[in-house]
Amino acid sequence: MAELILVRHGQANSHATDEAGYDRLSPLGVQQAEWLGAHLRETNPHFDHVFTGTLHRQTGTARAMGYDITEQDARLDELSYFALAQAIEAQHGIPAPVDATEFARYLPQVIEHWARGDLADVPETFEHFTTRITGLIDDICHHPGRVLIVTSGGVIGMVMRHTLGLDIPGMSKVMLQVMNSSLHRLEHVHDMLMLGTFNATPHLDTPDRAHARTFI
Ligand SMILES: O=C(O)[C@H](O)COP(=O)(O)O
């Protein structure tokens, strides 16, 4: 049996307007990761393998959690959000959202256009994004053990689509809910990938940590 614990990185630089600017943990993001690491040490600390993508916010989260990374795999890198946003504005006249309510309507439109192949000149097709993530998850499932995977919200959304057979709107709704430093648990048993936990933040449950429950 393989047990996969997926973690979204801690809060990044949410004020950024490009990918490079976004890709660093905020002080709160470091704190979220440290609290998550402490929670795992108190509960079930051992992992046979620790995977991250190659992004600073992902590797920084694993390190702030107190784990040595055994493998960085670019298949765990996030979708190219800023490039998709530029493409949908330039090609379909849909502007970037200005608040969380607008973002909740905007992200599903971006994913829908991308999945339909309606966004030209983007760094990666939706099909490639799908294949790289499902391929990695399937590879990991064929090795028994407990694996920590520190990645991003869009990747976790795709893993949920793969596990549960979600349609594109369903995947977008899942992506909108994935919190910074959240835990997601999958098991590969009976030749099937099963979801055990989605979007848990046990390290942020107490009222004094309510301020640290963030989406961006
Ligand atoms: O899907 C998104 O909202 C953005 O791509 C953010 O991704 P992240 O999980 O790497 O912050």
Can you walk me through this structure?
With 216 residues, the chain is an alpha/beta fold. It has one domain. Helix content is 45%, strand content 17%. It has 8 helices and 6 strands. Strands 3-2-4-1-5-6 form a 6-stranded mixed beta sheet. Helix 2 (27-43) crosses helix 3 (56-64) and helix 5 (100-116) packs antiparallel against helix 8 (168-177). The protein is globular, with a radius of gyration of 17 Å. The mean pLDDT is 97. Bound molecules: 3-phosphoglyceric acid. 3-phosphoglyceric acid binds next to helix 7. 3-phosphoglyceric acid binds at residues 8, 12, 78-79, 81, 152-154, 175. Keywords: Hydrolase, Isomerase. This is 2,3-bisphosphoglycerate-dependent phosphoglycerate mutase. It holds the Pfam family His_Phos_1. InterPro entries: His_Pase_superF_clade-1, His_PPase_superfam, Mito_Ser/Thr_phosphatase.
Using the CA coordinates, give the radius of gyration: 17 Å
- Domain module count: 1
Looking at the structure, what is the overall shape? globular
Tell me the number of strands.
6
SSE sequence, one letter per element? EHHEHEHHHEHHEE
Biggest sheet: strands side by side, in what order? Answer: 3-2-4-1-5-6
The proportion of strand residues reads 15-25%
Compute the number of helices. 8
Oligomer kind: single chain
> Which structural class should the secondary elements be placed in?
alpha/beta
Cα end-to-end separation: 34 Å
What proportion of the residues is helical, as a percent range?
Answer: 40-55%
Cofactors, ions and other ligands in the entry: 3-phosphoglyceric acid
Residue stretches low in confidence (pLDDT < 50, at least 5 long) are none
Major sheet: 6 strands, mixed
Mean pLDDT: 97
